[in-house]
Amino acid sequence: MRIFLLSILIVFFAGQALAIWNLNDVSILLPLPRGSAEDALLWSPVTEGGQGPLLPPSLYKILPRISSDLDAQTLYTKALKVVSIRLDPCFAEGPAARACQRQVRVVMQPLVLESGQWTTLDAALHVFYALSDREWMELVTKLRPADGRSLTMGLPLQVHPAIAREGLQGPAWKNLSGALLPFLGARKIVRATAMSVNPLGTFWFFSGINASNGQWSRLKIPRVPEETQGFFTDPGAMGQDVIRAAMNPSPDSEPGLRRILFNSVQARQDMTAEELQSGTREALHLLNPRRHNTGTADCVSCHVAPTVSFWSARQFPTWNWQQLFSKDAYPPRGPSANTTLQPGRAQVLRAFGYFDRDPIISPRTVNESLEVLRQMPR
Questions:
Q1: Residue 343: which residues within 8 A CB-CB, separation 6 or more?
Q2: Among 366, 370, 365, 344, which residue's Cα sits nearest to residue 355?
Q3: In sequence order, which residues have a C-beta less than 8 Å from that of residue 40 and are 6 or more positions away?
């Protein structure tokens, strides 16, 4: 399976050799700080962009407290750091989305020192900034590779190679930060979402806030529709092959996926091959940005879809994925490629960030980034 996935990447990127942009140019996973002081070089909620602080206190106070390990003030002023950045020239949501919005999005996670090394807590805030057409083109011009070709061409999505090599003190992060910050800040925020977790690390909560004309309103989660959604995992079944988990509230769609999540061992015994393939197909649809967006899928379903797709890949290695799922997977040649360490753990809901010190890149993030590349100016 690894060789098959790698071959998909090689074929794809070979065809992109003359392109200007690479996945790591539009989706930037920052390295964790080196040593005890480098964390100050990462953006935080109080970092001043050209449009105000990246996350103003007024918005932070109405978002849920995402971790019980630290008090709210320590989280805000010291622990929360930006670990990833996404560029999106056309963010659209809903079943018949026509208009789209140019956005920059950041993910913030709490960082803590353990034995002299920085690690993350299993919680996150996601902040969306909207840019005008003029601002977007100005930003793209600043970010365009100087020699007309990405320095990371041919590499899969990963911790940003240049920033990881140079460290956060190097020119790659300094230049990227300098290009982005003038366009970001409180005045540009259109949405903020939160993922919090209980102290045992077994129950996760998703919620969000929308902004319109300077007013904040609670986000209604699609397909539920409620203002919060939870996900519970049995602490005794958190591996890659045994899953016992549930959503609350749960959408009516994807019954096969939900059966596998609820008890993968029982599902393996009771479900027919066609039902198991249907559940896998539902997961692949959720991972495919051409089929689902943030307006057509609920939070938990999107975050747990990789668990089901990877579980199926391990349980049924003899399936002909290309034949079975050619109309479902993205790209339509097999399971989505991924560079995450130990993918498919039910307790890892991260899409683009870190679980402890492990970089996490979900297939959905890879697929969305590929879509973004298609829309970037040449």
A1: 240, 306, 310
A2: 344
A3: none
Question: Taking a C-beta distance cutoff of 8 angstroms, is the pair 208, 191 a contact?
Answer: yes
What ranges in 235-359 are assigned the alpha helix state H?
Answer: 255-262, 264-270, 273-286, 299-315, 321-324
371: helix, coil or strand? helix
Number of domains into which the chain is organized: 1
Residues 6+ apart with CB under 8 A from 267: 259, 260, 276, 279
Task: Label residues 89-98 b or e (16+ Cβ within 10 Å = b).
Answer: bebeeeeeee
Q: What is the pTM of this model?
A: 0.91
Amino acid at 10: I
**Is residue 227 within 8 Å of 221, Cβ to Cβ?**
yes
What is the number of helices (H) and of strands (E) in the chain? Answer: 13, 14
Query: CA 119 to CA 113: how far, in whole Å?
Result: 6
| DSSP letter assigned to residue 159 | B
In tens digits, the chain (378 residues) has pLDDT values of: 443 343 344 334 434 433 688 899 999 999 999 987 789 999 999 999 999 999 999 999 999 999 988 999 999 999 999 999 999 999 999 887 678 999 999 999 999 999 889 999 999 999 999 999 999 999 999 998 766 667 677 788 999 999 999 999 999 999 999 999 999 999 999 999 999 999 888 999 999 999 887 789 999 999 999 999 999 998 777 666 889 999 999 999 999 999 999 999 999 999 999 999 999 999 999 999 999 999 999 999 999 999 999 999 999 999 999 899 999 999 754 444 445 545 567 788 999 999 999 999 998 999 999 999 989 987
- Quote the domain boundaries for residue 220: 2-375
Contacts of 148 (CB under 8 A, 6+ apart): 20
Sorted by sequence, the CB contacts under 8 Å of residue 21 that are 6+ apart come out as 145, 150, 373, 376
Q: Is 56 exposed, middle or buried (0-12, 13-18, 19+ CB in 10 A)?
A: middle
Cα angle: 36, vertex 39, 41; to 5 degrees: 130
